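INFO  loader      accepted 1 record
INFO  loader      residues=130
INFO  predictor   begin
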Amino acid sequence: MKFKNAETQEISRRLNQSDCKDKSERLGRLQSSSEINGAQSLRSDKTNSSGENLFRGITKPREISVGKILKRLELVEDAFVSYIKTHQENLRASLDNSKKEEESFLEIIAQLKQEVHDFVSSDNSSSKSD
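INFO  predictor   done
INFO  writer      dumping tokens
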């Protein structure tokens, strides 16, 4: 609905005409030689693609030492094993703490049950004697 001069008019919310027509000339076109099985593919410009590593002269290849690799591997292994053992110890401590809390809780519940039982028993015995 659209309001015009305080009067209500019903109008369609759909555009009757669209100015957004597809124009293939805006998008450009690939050469027909790039079509494979009816599909067009995009290729990079081949003027500078010789397949060579252009950064080879800039970066120097590192000398690979098996001993250094093994040493680094052992350091990573030691660090990970240490982390896992510490985590396991923390889990064991947490489990022990949880078991102690459970025992304490069950003792308190047992005491409360006994007090309720004693209260009910004493209340019943005093009401029978009256």
